[in-house]
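Today's session is about reading a structure prediction critically. Students often jump straight to the picture, but the first step is always the sequence itself: look for stretches that repeat, for charged clusters, for runs of hydrophobic residues. Only then move on to the predicted structure, which in these notes is written as discrete structure tokens rather than atom positions. Here is the chain we will use throughout the hour.
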Amino acid sequence: MRFADRAHRLFHVRFTSCVCRLSHVCFTDYARWLSCTRCLLRMRFAGRMHRLFRVRFSNRVRHPFCVRLTGCLLCVLCLLCVRGFLRHVLFLALAPAVPVGQDSPVSNEPIALDEALTSFDALWSPRVVTHVNDYDVRIAKVEGEHIWHVHQETDEFFLVLDGELTIGLREPTGERTVRLPRGSVFTVPRGTEHRPSAPNGAAILMFEPTGTSSVGDRPTEIPAHIDATTGHPLGT
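Below is the predicted structure for this chain, in token form.
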């Protein structure tokens, strides 16, 4: 049963990955359904083998304790199958549908950052240029001050495309400020409270996990000039 469960999970992962790579249409839901169907069939087969073996064993071995012990061990194995099946059912019920193209780059063509920056005017409102695995590559126009915020689970990478960016940091040793002229990069470590600002305006590129909020994990009062978002599609 342990081997079957591992093989089942391996098939689920490989099948989902292969189908999504071989087609532009996402068949993740179909893969999940197929995985659950395999688990259901495996559970029914195990149940039949359990009953058959228990009956034959009880006919050959007359000791009640041995019969009960063997029956309990088989029940445990069947419960493991049931647990795997229920896990997949809950996964289907609770997991949101994966939109088409989420696992692929936004565009299959080269993207000129200068042109991408001219496609929007909103400040502190990042646009997602492309994806790298589970990370977003975002660009933003900034001016004035952001708010103090923190990302507990991830670092945050900054590249200044134009202008100058200032980042205030609250570290265990105290507060300090780093200044990033055009072409400079800086990574804010996870768990470090920081506040970007650009008195004269700047254009920046950020690299962070998909779904990361632009105002951190515990935002307080968010000013009107700051967009609390996980990134807008380019062109919106």
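Discussion point for the tutorial: The chain has four helices and eight strands.
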